[in-house]
Amino acid sequence: xxxxxxxPMKKNALMRFSEWLTVSRFVIxxxxxxxxxxxxxxxxxxxxxxFAEDTPEGPGAFTFDNFxxxxxxxxxxxxxxxxxxxAIGSSALTLVVGVAIxxxxxxxxxxxxxxxxxxxxxxxxxxxxxxAMAWALTLSPNIGWGNDVLKSMFGLxxxxxxxxxxxxxxxxxxxxxxxxxxxxxxxAFRVLDIxxxxxxxxxxxxxxxVTRRVTMPLLKPALLSTLLLIFVRAIESFExxxxxxxxxxxxxxxxxxxxxIAEAPPEFGYSSALGLTLLAICIIGVYFYxxxxxxxxxxxxxxxxxxxxxxxxxxxxxWPVTIMTGLVFVLALGLPLFTLVWxxxxxxxxxxxxxxxxxxxxxxxxxxxxxxxxxxxKNSAMLGAMSATIVxxxxxxxxxxxxxxxxxxxxxxxxxxxxPIAIPSVIIGxxxxxxxxxxxxxxxxxxxxxxIAYVTMYLPYGMRFASGGMIQIHKELEEVAEVSGATLxxxxxxxxMPLMSPVLMAAWLYIFVMGVRELTAxxxxxxxxxxxxxxxxxxLWEEGGSFGNVAAISVIQIVPLVMIVGLMRYMExxxxxxx
Amino acid sequence: MLTIEALxxxxxTRDGSTVAAVGGVSLELDTGNLLTLLGPSGCGKTTTLRxxxxxxxxxxxxxxxxxxxxxxxxxxxNVPANRRGIGMVFQSYAIWPHMSVFENVAFPMRxxxxxxxxxxxIEKMVARALEMVRLEGYEKRSSTQLSGGxxxxxxxxxxxxxxxxxxxxxxxxxxxxxxxxxxxxxxxxRLQLELDITTLYVxxxxxxxxxxxxxxxxxxxxxxIQRGAPYDIYHKPxxxxxAGFVGSTNFLRGFVESAVAGDGMGTVATxxxxxxxxxxxxxxxxxxxxxxxxxxxxxxxxxxxAEGGNHFEGKITNRIFLGEVIDYLIxxxxxxxxxxxxxxxxxxxxxxxxxxxxxxxxVGLAEAGExxx
Lengths: 579, 373
Description:
The complex is a heterodimer. Chain A is mainly α. Chain A is 74% helix and 2% strand. Chain A is globular and about 90 Å long. Mean pLDDT of chain A is 84; it is low at 1-9 and 297-308. By secondary structure, chain B is α+β, with helices and mostly antiparallel strands. The longest helix of chain B is centred in the middle third of the chain and has 18 residues, at 178-195. Classes of the chains: A mainly alpha, B alpha+beta. At the A-B interface, α21 and α22 of A face α2 of B.
């Protein structure tokens, strides 16, 4: 043993620290700290402002007045009632339609199933604001062409539909969200091993018994989690209540918070106090969502080799089922899209129009010459690209920390990065506004404050994509690289990144699309020179000039977004083929 | 070549409780030998192997590879895995699906820190490694097009390409089907002999361990229970655990009837009478004893042998014909004895037979004492 090389030299703490702090470790720590900052600073400022007096100089002394103001408002009960009815109504309708379509697409032999899948992705790409505007243009009692057509067809004196009602709001939000419910439920139907149902049949169960005792219990976690997720997204939705609820006095939490901040002088404290309630509701919803999905693996019934999903043979019902499903898409997706395209080319509505003589490109010319349109387009594209890049990078690094290092409490990073999913965009926008009005960081009225908001909001999505991708990659693939002599960076570059690139690309595109669609948070944070497509579209709508202009700017946004979604679908296919 | 001293590793589970995966393991492995760590899952064998690789940081102990301390808890030395210069084959093979066969094998040279390789050198080394595992001509194939057995060879080629001082194999055959496994066993033995490469092998399969090793270390709950040549591990187990884990065994209970000093024959009183057997350790009068005997060592006959003891009667309760042998279950008193016999030794269910236990095949174990000194 005496010949062994020994290292008796004592090292001081600083030397040991600098040795320990390699480039990769530095990057990892920096990412974790950035993530903590992004999530906790807005929440802290929200709390702070909620308990501080509103003064012209900013938040003042400690007070409970904001809560007293907010919770003694006589219409508070009304606010809660509206929000909850709206959220429950739309999540229920969304779930029913979404589940029906998931069943048709995944479990039957109805023709055209892949078309429905593609249409659902397209529906996801269309901004909520545009959907709300399209429905207003279709079924408004005054200007809706749909009502006009029905009136002249049936000789009615009054418009048969009014979109500016609670029912209208629920319908519009559901028409926007049901593809999401389908996309969430689809995998659950897909992995449901048909042999479990067959085993029930062989054991003597009748069809309805199989459904009640086997299929439904197996689908329960997926159903519950989808319902909760849509509930949360409905209660935090802003565009539909803003465009369709407020005109007829139907206020919900999100619109009330926005109004309080848009007022002069702004009531920051009051809106924060309301925001905390909304946040609490969302956190409870997300908590139950996480609980419902916690044991999801236990229900994953993919059985590896030899698993062949056998679709239910519909026989003579094949075409009727397809037509019914198609009709849902025509009504919910086709109608608003048709309205937008039509209105962007024609000023007159459907009855009594000359297809050739009345055709005009005036609306498009107007939009292209609209003073802030091009800068808004540039801002949106840049914000989408930058936030997607940062979020994907952060998600990748943090998923790696959580899954691959043995660091104590690494899993808390996962939980922290997931928090923003429970924070409504309205609150993200408001609290980031407060935070950077208070903090001496000069980002107010710049594009950077928008970037901070976008990155915060999309962090959970980046994390989910990255962890999902990383779980599929066996840890030994990296370990063998390490044993072969590769450094951490070489392992990242040569092994992990190439293996994960399709997933990371898909994540990037997904987040880019969300960034370009963004309206709610931007509304609080966009300054005169930092308008984005969403805020410009809303301004055009609120100016109330020509609906053709609104339609034209919508079409201009929809076309590239739909193309990107097509690209995403292509990437997804590549990923699943490799698996 | 490889020295492991007093290695300890404790894992902390998510709920905060600690699990001692390795509790003070010391091993030595000479150049050119193959040492197998054999044990049930969770016995600490893989943690020991991964500590040697540098993929796991032990809490205490020392690891020396070829005269270099790669880990020493006391001196705070921990050479990272990418600096230990070892070859390793994983249970899942860990073949990179985005690289060709050639690139998989070339990887260790491509990422080398100490030495830069020219393309010509890399090509030569890869070609030789692939030839060793009989995969020549597959260079351009995508690694995902290989069969399970070929992927296994590829993983081996990648582990061997730098001609490491030490090769670590983590259950390399467990993902292959029975026939391929048998074939790869011979292949591994051939390679190990040809290259004379020092190898640490981890498996839970006693057949593999017996077939491949120069030496076996049987592990259980973080400790090495017995070390020895395959023959000794099989025929002279020192604890009930080793006897039960390596091959199937009969256990007969009794107590010492005549004291034994050192290794040697002694007699044990059992419900079946006095049985003479081998002792590996001192045993004093009246000590509780378990007699261990392998099913294939038991002799069956119609009548009691004319002379010598160590025999008693039993009744055949079941028999299974396996081709080259017949397995019998025999009821003798309160105990059930398994016997593996030659097919010529043919008895019907229900028949009374005479059971003889050859004294030199019976091993007497003291019931206490799980851990080897």
